[in-house]
Amino acid sequence: MGRLRLQVVANRKQETLVPFVLATVQPGAIVCTDGWTGYDPLNAAGYSHALSPFVATTP
């Protein structure tokens, strides 16, 4: 497991989330998130996008 990057952001829009990842995460890294669709462009940007094993699911 690598390093954790956290930041308070104005909203959860793709236009906010993706630039944060691009600025703080090494290209080619695996980015673990809650699966929010705002992160979908990460694959096209050269990242591997994976669902975090710590995300709670509802039955």
Structural features:
alpha+beta; 1 helix; single chain; 59 residues; two-stranded parallel sheet
Polypeptide structure, described:
The protein is an alpha+beta fold and 59 residues long. It is 19% helix and 14% strand. It has a two-stranded parallel ribbon with strand order 1-2. The radius of gyration is 11 Å and the shape is globular. The relative contact order is 0.22. The model has no long low-confidence stretch (mean pLDDT 86).
User: Quick check: average pLDDT?
Assistant: 86
Span between termini:
28 Å
Main sheet overview: 2 strands, parallel
The fraction of residues in strands falls at: 5-15%
Helical region count? 1
H/E series: HEE
Number of E-type strands: 2
What's the shape? globular
Order of strands across the widest beta sheet?
1-2
Which percent bin holds the helix content?
10-25%
Radius of gyration: 11 Å
Low-pLDDT runs: none
Q: Which class do the helix and strand fractions yield?
A: alpha+beta
How would you briefly describe this protein structure?
With 59 residues, this protein is α+β, with helices and mostly antiparallel strands. The protein contains 1 helix and 2 strands.
Which SSEs are present, and which pair or pack?
Layout: H1 14-24, E1 30-33, E2 48-51
Parallel strand pairs: 1-2
